[in-house]
Structure formats: structure tokens, C-alpha cells
């Protein structure tokens, strides 16, 4: 049986690689003991701001066996999104993950293919695919599966490739061979903490989500508090500052997923182009992008807040 677990794990990892995933790690489904007090404290401190959904399904968030009936294994997967080309200097910026087609669709398709492969090759296996749209602590599972460590900016970090990747999970009812965790390699570095313009990283490894530029420009539906005027450093959708300054990201290599390539007009847009953006241009440039989440009104609100 142990031989089978090992064989199945290798099969799954091989197929994940073939599907274009950067890496794949597997851990035993169960209660995330170390995460429980951290999550509780984070919520108590109101670090989630208006993101009320973070309060929901507390038990399921910490234990996938309560989320997926009969689950035995959490398969964590990373998909690179680091772009070959970035926006020009001196323009309003968007987070690199939002350059191309919305990752939810791309990754969901790959996860479904992986699940079908498991069912075809191994037999009756049930499971569910997750791409940050359900109560799953994806970074915690990826770290538990040995795919990296959670850095001081609270993102998953990997020595070979940095942190510009999406994390997704397949939670299945099959027992597999499990990976061990990796060690923390942040050392004494505080570059991410020092660089955050809104002081959202309140202490190493703790981010107050309600102070993060990504939160203000994507999640917050009301007006952005005026106290933060002049602190956004031209970020109009999301923010990559803590990742851009991280020394491990000098190892980032461009992705090879054509659907993540930006709309041709996007990279050339100047501040003036963004200030004059029409709803038609917005629809054309962001037709299938995650930027649609903030809607035209949200993006123009953000631009106005930065430039006024």
C-alpha cells in the first residue's frame, strides 16, 4: 500500500508538471492547529476590514475534512504568472497577476484536468478544486506541502522562484505520500516591511489587510480614507511593492501561459491614457481580466484618489 501511495503521488506530480504547474506538494488533510490562534487574533484585530467573508466558515477554513467530505489529502499547486514585460515607468500600475486572463478560469480548467487524470489512472477518487474562492488557507497548505515558506510579507516564498505565482488546491479522498515542510529563509531581511508605504505589515509575518493598498483598490467598496492620500505610489489595482523588493524575486522567470499575456494596449498606457479611460476601453482591455472585479467605477475612483 505504501508503494502505491508513493507511485500515485509521483503520477500526480508528473501530470501537474505536464499541465504547466510550477510545482506540486501534498499534505495530509486535517486541522491546521498552528493557524487557528493566528486566524482568530487576525480577525479579532479587524485586520480583514470590510472583507466580512473572512469571518465565515471558521471551522471549514481550518479543517478541509469539514469542507470536503471524506478528504484525506490536500494537493497544493503553484502556477507562475511573472510577466516577460511589465508596464512602462511613470504610469498608474496594476498588480502583475491581473495583466492577462482571470486566473480563476485558467487554473480551474487545469485542476479539473488533473482530477480527471487521477480518476482515469487511479480509479474512484472524489475531490474538489479550489482557487482562492472558498474558505481554504491556501498559503498555509502550500507551506505544509513543502512548496515554500510564508515570508514576512505573508506571501508564500520559494528559493528558486520567489513569490509571483498563484496557489490552488485539489482536496481529494485518497491517501497519498506526504511532503515535509521547508525552512524559513527570510533571515534578518526586513525589505518588505520597510518598503510598504501604508505600514500594512504591522510586524514580521503579520499583515493588516485593512491597511493594504490591494485592499483599498480592490476590496473596499466605499471611499478610500483620505489619511492615505499620497501613499499609493501610483498603484491603482492591487500592489506588488512587498514582492518587488523581496530579494528572492530576483529568481523569478517569465511564465509560459499565453493566456496570462496582457492585452496589447495595456503595457503602453500612460497616466494620461488612464485618466481619460472610457468604459468601452475598460471593457476591451480588461475583457477577461481580474480587474473586472473592481469595475469601471472602482478603477476610476482609484485613479482619481491617486492623482488628486
Automatic annotation (TrEMBL):
GO terms for cellular component: cytoplasm. Binds 2 [4Fe-4S] clusters per monomer. The active site is at residue 132. TRNA binds at residue 221. [4Fe-4S] cluster 1 binds at residues 186, 189, 192, 246. Keywords: 4Fe-4S, Cobalamin, Cobalt, Cytoplasm, Iron, Iron-sulfur, Metal-binding, Oxidoreductase, Queuosine biosynthesis, tRNA processing. Pathway: tRNA modification; tRNA-queuosine biosynthesis. One of its GO terms (molecular function) is metal ion binding. Its EC number is 1.17.99.6. The keyword Oxidoreductase applies. It holds the Pfam family QueG_DUF1730. It is found in: Cytoplasm. The keyword Oxidoreductase applies. HAMAP family: QueG. Monomer. Catalyzes the conversion of epoxyqueuosine (oQ) to queuosine (Q), which is a hypermodified base found in the wobble positions of tRNA(Asp), tRNA(Asn), tRNA(His) and tRNA(Tyr). This is Epoxyqueuosine reductase. The gene is queG.
Amino acid at each position: 500500500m505504501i508503494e502505491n501511495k508513493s507511485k500515485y503521488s509521483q503520477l500526480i506530480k508528473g501530470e501537474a508538471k505536464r499541465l504547466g504547474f510550477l510545482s506540486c506538494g501534498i499534505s495530509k488533510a486535517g486541522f491546521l492547529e498552528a493557524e487557528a490562534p493566528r486566524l482568530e487574533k487576525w480577525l479579532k484585530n479587524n485586520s480583514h476590514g470590510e472583507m466580512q467573508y473572512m469571518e465565515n466558515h471558521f471551522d471549514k477554513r481550518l479543517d478541509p475534512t469539514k469542507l470536503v467530505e471524506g478528504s484525506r489529502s490536500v494537493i497544493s499547486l503553484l502556477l507562475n504568472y511573472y510577466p516577460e514585460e511589465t508596464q512602462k515607468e511613470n504610469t498608474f500600475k496594476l498588480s502583475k497577476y491581473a495583466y492577462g486572463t482571470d486566473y480563476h478560469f485558467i487554473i480551474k480548467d487545469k485542476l479539473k484536468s488533473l482530477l480527471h487524470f487521477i480518476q482515469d489512472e487511479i480509479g474512484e477518487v472524489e475531490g474538489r478544486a479550489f482557487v482562492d474562492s472558498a474558505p481554504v488557507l491556501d498559503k498555509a497548505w502550500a507551506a505544509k506541502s513543502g512548496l515554500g515558506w510564508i515570508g514576512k510579507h505573508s506571501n508564500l516564498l520559494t528559493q528558486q522562484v520567489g513569490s509571483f505565482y498563484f496557489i490552488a488546491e485539489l482536496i481529494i479522498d485518497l491517501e497519498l505520500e506526504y511532503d515535509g515542510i521547508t525552512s524559513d529563509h527570510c533571515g534578518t531581511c526586513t525589505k518588505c516591511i520597510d518598503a510598504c508605504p501604508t505600514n500594512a505589515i504591522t510586524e514580521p509575518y503579520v499583515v493588516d489587510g485593512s491597511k493594504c493598498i490591494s485592499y483599498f483598490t480592490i476590496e473596499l467598496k466605499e471611499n478610500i480614507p483620505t489619511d492615505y492620500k499620497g501613499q499609493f505610489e501610483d498603484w491603482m489595482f492591487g500592489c506588488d511593492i512587498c514582492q518587488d523588493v523581496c530579494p528572492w524575486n530576483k529568481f523569478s522567470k517569465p511564465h509560459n501561459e499565453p493566456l496570462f499575456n496582457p492585452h496589447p494596449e495595456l503595457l503602453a498606457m500612460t497616466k494620461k491614457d488612464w485618466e481619460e479611460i472610457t468604459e468601452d476601453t475598460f471593457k476591451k482591455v480588461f475583457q477577461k481580466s481580474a480587474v473586472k472585479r473592481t469595475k469601471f467605477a472602482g478603477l476610476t475612483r482609484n485613479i482619481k484618489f491617486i492623482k488628486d
